[in-house]
Amino acid sequence: AGWTVAPELDLDLDISCLKVCVHLMQTTLTAMTKLPFVDRRQLRVPAWRDGLMLDANGAIKDAIFYGNMLDTSGAVRHLGDDVTGEGCAKTEDEQISVSLNDLPTDVAALVFMLNASTSSDLSRTEDIFFRVRDAKNEPLVETALPKECRVKETHSVLSLALYRTGEADQWDGWCMRFLLEPYSEPSWGELIPEAKKALLFAFPGMNIDPSEFVAIMRKSEDRPLDDIANFRLLKNGQEPTHVTSVRIDVGWTVLASAGVEKVDMDTNILLTDDKGAVVGEVNFNNKEEKGIKLLGDERSVDATSDDKKPAKFPVHEQVVVTLTEVDPKVKNIVIFVTNYSGTGFTQLESVRCRFVETATGQDLSVFSVDCRQGEASGKKTVMVGKVYRDNICSAFHDWKFAQTQDSELSLEAVQKMQAQRGLPAFDEDAGLSIPDWEQKAEIQWRIRGLGQFCYGETIAEATPAAVAVAVYDGRRDGDGLRHDRRARCCYPNGDSYYGQYTHGKRDGMGIYMFRYGSAYHGIFKEGHLQEGTMEHPDGGKYVGQYMKDKMEGEGTYIYPGGDKYSGHWVSGKKEGHGRYEYSNGTVLEGDWKNGQPDGNLKYDESTTYKAAGKFDKGVPLGPWQFQSKKTGLKQEGQYKYKPVGWSGEGEPPKPLPPKWKGLSWTINRETQVLRGFCKCYMRTVI
């Protein structure tokens, strides 16, 4: 399969139901022993190739996706989770290899799906194709997804079905059918009933349960708990609900090649406020905080009856979070697993967690971390996921989830969105620094998959990494680096950032709020300020260019008293040509150096006179010319330093300020030479 996307698009769309019927293609597979199924993607569409394995009655035998790269039989292998779009083959991005002869006989069908995340959809693609190759890597057949299927709010495609023919006790062979059915659901776990319906032509007796539903979270993806629960209910014609309590099942699978049955792992919970300050811990030494309880080895019946769940895994520990009872100062609940045996994750295949609605026992979401990937090497802690509060009436939330292709962040745009919702405009001077989740507004609980490995085998050693994921709200790239066009980070030092991250660095449009009250709004480049507006609590304001976070290039600084400088800057100081305007209208324009007037300048007092001459390190020196605006009278002269005596011992004394010596007057073009010193001094100009 493959598709090409437009790089400038980055849409955030709400989910709605869309289904388009397309032509079906069927091919019989007879002489193949290995079937690579491939998938191509370019640029930045977050999409995954997933595979679902079922028996003839519809029971799920296994699932292959980015969190489970190899099935238990070893016959189906995901060859790489390509999240960059650069591809793992010449013309394809992701590949799934299927060894048909090695599949267990109770596996009757495989359904392949193409999924985009909730933050993307298939409308961003310019083309999508699906290709099947044989064991010699030669193309057998391919087809394209019609344009009418690549529309907004479409997140998934049931792309291909591989199914056996004949009877269960004596299969005849394999057949393949392109399905090409698009859906709005963003993960394979939400398409289980639809996948089974697509196989009814081959297995009419397949059991289909409309409630067999679980949201499969991707790395750094986040979704509201209520939306996950209500999506299933509304689809089945039931009344929506409000999730008040969740159980988090945590488990890990030991590698068959590890040679051990058990690995000593522990589940830990870190609680932080909105600035990342730690306000509580839950672990084997402290199993309970307000609204949060670690059950340890106490497991409920439905958790141990794991074989019937869509994304099954062994459950080792459980945590119950009663959302209505969690301390109000807690914003982030970070779940991470540590290893105390010193082996790290070398003996593990995966670490997984499942969110279950406590009241109904219904699975809400599953997140899986594959420990066989290189990033786990040498690490002894993995951040699995987090549960956090979000104020859906906040300025950040309005901007984050606005249905617009324009990702530019501006104070005016956010204020307009708030006004449209009938909310009071926030403090213009403070910008977005008003705590946008502490306001007594509508609070929403969300969950986010993390999957970040870090060093440290004790809770204390892992705390800095846990705090780092707690304070950041946004997506990440394949390397776990911050990567999102609309993100938020509240730093432990009190600073806050709202805007774009690119591969771990602030890059693009953003707003940075300093803890002492200043705020920058503009463009970032590779983590540094590039061009924008900086406002200070005293009323000072700079609009212009930066280099390595210092004012450099062309820019204008408006001082608290109303004075203004426009011109060139170097390393945060006035340098080159510039114009300084006083609040009373007086102007000083010319050459500047190291923050001071230095060189040829012109001085224009608004109502009385104008002058031109030279400055040296901030003081007038050398020839100058003055002219009265009222009479036209001109005077020429120069500023000179008065000699200061020095004995030659110790430090030399500082010279006295230069004094003016008038040399000539010009009245009606007639010149009179003046002898002696004129008692006229130029006013201080800077």
Explain what you see.
The protein is elongated, with a radius of gyration of 34 Å. The protein has a 17-stranded antiparallel beta sheet. A 7-stranded mixed beta sheet has the order 13-23-22-15-20-19-18. Residues 6-48, 83-90, 298-303, 420-440 and 668-686 have low confidence and may be disordered. The protein starts with a strand and ends in a 13-residue tail after the last strand. It has 6 helices and 42 strands. It has 686 residues and is mainly beta.
Compute the number of strand runs. Answer: 42
Helix content: under 10%
Largest sheet: 17 strands, antiparallel
Task: Give me the number of helical elements.
Answer: 6
What structural class is derived from the secondary structure elements? mainly beta
Radius of gyration: 34 Å
Low-confidence segments: 6-48, 83-90, 298-303, 420-440, 668-686
Beta-strand proportion: 35-45%
Distance between the termini: 67 Å
Q: Assign an overall shape.
A: elongated
Average pLDDT score: 75
Descriptors:
686 residues; 6 helices; 7-stranded mixed β-sheet; mainly beta; 17-stranded antiparallel β-sheet
Question: What does this entry show, briefly?
Answer:
With 686 residues, the protein is mainly beta. It contains 6 helices and 42 strands.
